[in-house]
Every structure is written in structure tokens, then in C-alpha cells.
Amino acid sequence: LKELTPLNPPSTSYRQSLVVDPKERFQRNSTHPEESIELDLSGRRINDSKLASILGEIAAIKGLRSINFDKNLISEIGFQHILRKLADHPTLESISLSENYLDESIFRILKDGGRKLRSLNKFVLKDNRQIKNISFVRREVAALRKQGIVVETSF
Fold first, then answer.
1. Which candidate, 52, 49, 130, places its Cα nearest to that of 86?
2. Which contiguous run of DSSP H or E holds residue 19?
3. With pLDDT > 70 as the criterion, what percentage of the chain qualifies?
4. Amino acid 103: pLDDT
5. What letters, b where the CB count within 10 A reaches 16 and e where it falls short, cover 10-37?
6. H/E/C letters for each residue in 69-114?
7. According to the model, what pLDDT value does residue 25 have?
């Protein structure tokens, strides 16, 4: 991981934006206990199998607050990998999966797996190519909200 300049100067709490070189390993040793990391993996042509191969290392990142997987090649299979590996991450709160290849089945997957989520409670699922049933999506988003899970969609 290559670090960029912190978005806010160091204090008791600050954020860092990280750029990941796909050829490098995901290694992160947090020296600041309240460090908040936003991992941006958008537009990297990550498919389900590549995602499965990197999730273990992502799960080991301490202080990880959000992950941006926008504009990749992730389907509901990759979404299942994400929930399996990251559901119990102690600090992860938000995952963005906009502009991928997710379909309506992710709402069932999320409802079933939502009970296992630790701190992860927000999913951004805008502009996914396979989600077409607007009324179904609206019902599912409302049901998930009752479970304490926020889902942002384009509908």
C-alpha cells in the first residue's frame, strides 16, 4: 500500500486515503490506534476470483472503515465472498459496490448474512447493470433498514 497525504492533519482521529498497486501485497501496520482507513479499489477490473484472493489480506487491515469497489467486475458471487470474509471486521462500516454486475439476489444474500454483521452497516449499490426490478429493490431496502443496514441504490 502506498500512503497519500492524510485528508486531515494528524490528531486524535484522522483519515488516510490509500492507493493500492495490484502487484503489491496488502500490508498495513497501524501505528495510530484511532487511525481510520478508506481503501479505494475502484476501477481496477477486479472480478470475483481476484476479489476472493485479496479479501483475506484486506480483512487484516486494522482501522479499515470503508472500501470502495466501484466500477469493477463483481457479481453476487463476489458479494458472497465479501460478506463471508468481512462481516465480522471490527471497524469496517461501509462498502461501496456501485457500477458492478450485481443483481437482485444480493438482497437475499444481504438479508441472510446481515445478522452476522459486526460494524458493517452501509452498502452503496448504485448503478449495477443487472438490478432491474425497482419495486422489489425498494421493498428490500426498507426491510434491510429495519435490520439496521443502510443500502443506497439508484432507485
1. 52
2. strand 15-19
3. 78
4. 96
5. eeeeeebebebeeeeebebeeeeeebbb
6. CCCCECCHHHHHHHHHHHCCCCCCCEEECCCCCCCCHHHHHHHHHH
7. 44
pLDDT tens digits, 74-124: 999 999 999 999 999 999 999 999 999 999 999 999 998 887 899 999 999
- Whether the CA torsion 116, 120, 124, 128 is positive or negative: it is negative
Residue 3: all three cell numbers together: 500512503
In 3-state terms, what secondary structure has residue 68? Answer: strand
Site of grid cell 439476489: 105
Site of grid cell 495510530 = 32
What local confidence, expressed as pLDDT, does residue 34 receive?
Answer: 59
Q: Residue 73 in contact with residue 97, Cβ under 8 Å?
A: no
* Parallel/antiparallel/unpaired status of strands 122-124 and 94-96: parallel
pLDDT of residue 131 exceeding 80, the answer is yes
- How many residues belong to the chain? 155
